[in-house]
């Protein structure tokens, strides 16, 4: 069991992923306090990272005066395009796919249609300016472009009630009742953000995380839930689910009709799931390797004891899948053969193309983040959630603000929204180790990630693997997930499904308008590139869950009687969903 009174086990790191200094002077601690204060006004982003990025861009722009001057000509060209559109010509520009700011029909009528055209043309020119100077460091250019996009989103006329025709129309029709309702929504959201008591539409253990089961093991880091069988016989190989600890596990156990765990149990699977503890300051020194040893490996030991040494279908989601891959590689290296297969959902192992979140993963930013977390010992759910929201500000910030605060609408509660509001924290040490070793140094993919003092090789894993990625995943882009093809030449089934990081995984059979692509690469066979794979793999309608169950079934033995609930040393402690998931 993880002893919080002692220093956490040292992370097995790459040589480049050095730990934070063990001792800091008084001056350094004052600097940490300064950085923590700065983070309140920068959204957790390092001022140095932002300043250096803009300085790099500005220096190159200044050193290309002729190209910079040509931007003036491009601005005049944009004005000519706008004038032609105003004089009755065809639209000069259309919103990009996924841009829903101007979808309401009123935006297509005068004078708003011309306002939309002017805004889109101005945004196109501004982004052209950002991308114009050559020689700018790629990471710095992404940061500058991101900041420019944030500013453009903020200044959009759709956010101004006196310029948004949909808001004007609603205000006129309701006599301003929409604005009064919007104020109530705003005050409610502010109360929730400040930790106030907000009525819950769903209750854990009743409406969500309600699949019957027992907590059969608990340590300082996690609880292990064993789910009660619902069929007379089950596959002999249990399924162990390792969720990410940046989310609560019941993303996979939402309402009964939308629960992967409930569905798996109904297919005759013995299912175990880890429920991670929501860390507080006492867990500040918990390491990434603690999550492996006290999480994954402790769970495997318990499942083995309960299921009579049966091999395990190990399944990981998001960061839980990355951790499970690390554990599987270490087990393969150490000739531990307790796993039957490896299934990974939206999980990355190579982080060179890890999406927009990678934009601010620099050494400077990580040092700033480390200082920011030092005062509390963890990253708060609000800080983490804010970072994810900024990656899709139009969809997750401004469109919500317009609907809730200007139109006075209130989203009908649903299970995924309730889960999304149930935030978690991240231990300071683990978070920095994870970002530095995986995101910054890509140590796992490059063979420099150490466990017990020895480097891991993902090609050591000799298990059938089932990988699921989603088309609109901005947390773990599917081409990044796909890269495991290049790190392991074993049998690998790859699925690309519709939806995003969460909704694409929660894709129960019968859900309308769902599709997926699936292709098997046999062990040692030629590997397709991602674009070639997508082009040559036809989409199928329906849920990928059925394909996964068939895949598990083909790698399982004959059905047996369900194992007991718990075993000696792992007797049931309480009913599912347990205690840790209830920690706010």
From TrEMBL:
The keyword Ribosomal protein does not apply. Residues 28-66, 99-264 form the Poly-beta-hydroxybutyrate polymerase N-terminal domain. InterPro entries: AB_hydrolase_fold (IPR029058), PHA/PHB_synthase (IPR051321), PhaC_N (IPR010941), PHBC_N (IPR022211). Keywords: Acyltransferase, Transferase. It comes from the Bacteria. Pfam families: PhaC_N (PF07167), PHBC_N (PF12551). GO terms for molecular function: acyltransferase activity. SUPFAM superfamilies: alpha/beta-Hydrolases. Residues 1-25 are annotated as: Disordered. One of its GO terms (biological process) is poly-hydroxybutyrate biosynthetic process. The keyword Transmembrane helix does not apply. This is Poly-beta-hydroxybutyrate polymerase.
């Amino acid at each position: 069991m993880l002893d919080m009174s002692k220093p956490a086990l040292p992370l097995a790191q790459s040589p480049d992923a050095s730990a934070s200094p063990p001792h800091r002077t008084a001056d350094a601690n004052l600097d940490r306090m300064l950085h923590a204060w700065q983070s309140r006004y920068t959204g957790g982003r390092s001022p140095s990272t932002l300043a250096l990025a803009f300085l790099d861009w500005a220096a190159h722009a200044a050193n290309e005066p002729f190209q910079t001057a040509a931007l003036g000509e491009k601005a005049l060209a944009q004005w000519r395009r706008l004038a032609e559109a105003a004089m009755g010509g065809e639209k000069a520009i259309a919103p990009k796919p996924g841009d829903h700011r101007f979808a309401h029909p009123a935006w297509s009528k005068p004078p708003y249609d011309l306002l939309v055209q002017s805004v889109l043309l101005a945004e196109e020119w501004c982004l052209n300016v950002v991308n114009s100077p050559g020689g700018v460091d790629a990471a710095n250019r992404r940061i500058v472009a991101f900041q420019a996009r944030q500013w453009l989103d903020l200044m959009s006329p759709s956010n101004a009630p006196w310029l948004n025709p949909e808001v004007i129309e609603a205000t006129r029709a309701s006599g301003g009742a929409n604005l009064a309702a919007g104020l109530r929504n705003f005050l409610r959201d502010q109360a929730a953000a400040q930790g106030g008591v907000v009525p819950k539409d769903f209750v854990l253990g009743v409406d969500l995380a309600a699949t019957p089961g027992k907590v059969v093991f608990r340590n300082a880091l996690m609880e292990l839930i064993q789910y009660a069988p619902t069929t007379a016989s089950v596959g002999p190989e249990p399924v162990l689910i390792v969720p990410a600890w940046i989310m609560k596990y019941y993303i996979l156990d939402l309402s009964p009709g939308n629960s992967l765990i409930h569905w798996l149990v109904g297919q005759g699977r013995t299912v175990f799931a880890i429920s991670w503890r929501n860390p507080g300051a006492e867990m500040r020194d918990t390491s990434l390797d603690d999550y492996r040893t006290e999480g994954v490996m402790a769970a495997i030991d318990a499942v083995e004891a309960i299921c009579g040494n049966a091999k395990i279908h190990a399944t990981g989601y998001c960061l839980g899948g990355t951790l499970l891959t690390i554990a599987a590689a270490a087990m393969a290296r150490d000739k531990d053969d307790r796993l039957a297969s490896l299934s990974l959902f939206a999980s990355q192992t190579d982080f060179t193309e890890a999406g927009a979140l990678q934009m601010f993963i620099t050494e400077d930013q990580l040092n700033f983040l480390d200082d920011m977390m030092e005062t509390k010992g963890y990253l708060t759910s609000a800080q983490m959630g804010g970072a994810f929201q900024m990656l899709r500000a139009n969809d997750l910030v401004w469109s919500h603000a317009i609907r809730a605060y200007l139109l006075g609408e209130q989203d009908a509660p649903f299970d995924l929204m309730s889960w999304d509001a149930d935030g978690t924290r991240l231990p300071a040490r683990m978070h920095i180790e994870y970002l530095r070793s995986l995101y910054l140094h890509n140590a796992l993919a490059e063979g420099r990630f150490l466990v017990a003092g020895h480097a891991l090789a993902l090609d050591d894993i000799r298990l059938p693997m089932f990988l699921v990625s989603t088309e609109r995943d901005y947390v773990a882009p599917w081409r990044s997930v796909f890269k495991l093809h290049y790190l392991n030449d074993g049998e690998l089934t790859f699925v690309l499904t519709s939806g995003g990081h969460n909704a694409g995984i929660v894709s129960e059979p019968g859900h309308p308008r769902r599709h997926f692509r699936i292709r098997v690469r046999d062990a040692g066979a030629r590997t397709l590139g991602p674009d070639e794979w997508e082009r040559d793999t036809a989409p199928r309608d329906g849920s990928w869950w059925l394909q996964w169950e068939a895949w598990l079934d083909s790698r399982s033995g004959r059905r047996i009687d369900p194992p007991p609930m718990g075993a000696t040393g792992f007797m049931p402690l309480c009913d599912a969903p347990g205690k840790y998931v209830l920690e706010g």
